Amino acid sequence: MTTRAEGPRNVSAVLHTLYEQERDATVLVAGAPGGRIHVRQGLVVSIETPGAPGAESILLRSGRVADTAWTAVRAACRDEEGRLADELSARGLLTATEFEVLCVAAVFDAAFVLALAAPQGWEVTGPVPVPVSGPGLTPRRIAAETTRRLAALNGQWMPASALAALRVQPTEPVPSLLPSRYVTLLRAANDRRTPRDLAFALGRGTYAVMLDLARLHTLGLLQETAPVTDARPSTAPRVPASGTRSPEPAPVVTLPRRTPGAHQLGGADRS
Fold this sequence. Notes:
Layout: H1 11-21, E1 25-30, E2 35-40, E3 43-48, H2 55-61, H3 67-77, H4 84-90, H5 96-114, E4 121-125, H6 139-154, H7 160-164, E5 167-170, H8 180-188, H9 195-202, H10 206-218, E6 222-225
Antiparallel strand pairs: 1-2, 1-4, 2-3, 5-6
Helix pairs in contact: 4-5, 5-6, 9-10
């Protein structure tokens, strides 16, 4: 496993190198939660991590696509990369654009989650098949979006890394006039679920859940309970009880200066 001393200073630098080389590769990131970053021709097409639901999980948990329909689509595609969007569209389940938007949101969400804690190391391997993937994103765009999300959360309730480990439950009673997504989130929250657990349970992005929890806290609708104190995944139920490229234009968000231990990876906030 590559470390900072042996190679690029962080995972973002690894991705930039792969981008310049137009590589097909998989970056294995060790740590909590860790994950796999899938790169095609230097662009990130998918990120898998136990810390955030992927596009497939969001589709199924949210009820947007039925399990049986999804199974049929996967069988028809035979796990070939790039076919899912067309097959979903042909069956009238999702338009190709809707699926691509979902995949992009899932990549941003996974990158944000990986940025919450320093990785223990990383390794670049050959490409691993990834049938559920979307349009490629540049490392710079991912880093910029991750920076924006961290800043948005850190400026509210508490640092994002602390909020990610927190368990909350609603105050009583839950106001009925709240937007439906807030009501659903409050009803799913209990003193056992972390934001990650809630994201998997509801079929939403982990960042979007954390942002809504911060907003609910400002409204006095949440009670804090004990944070998670170890790196093991939560066991709380997930189902609610009810060649060199042309230079890319600089992103709007300025990447921060690197400090020891810092790293960035990098959408809709309401995913």
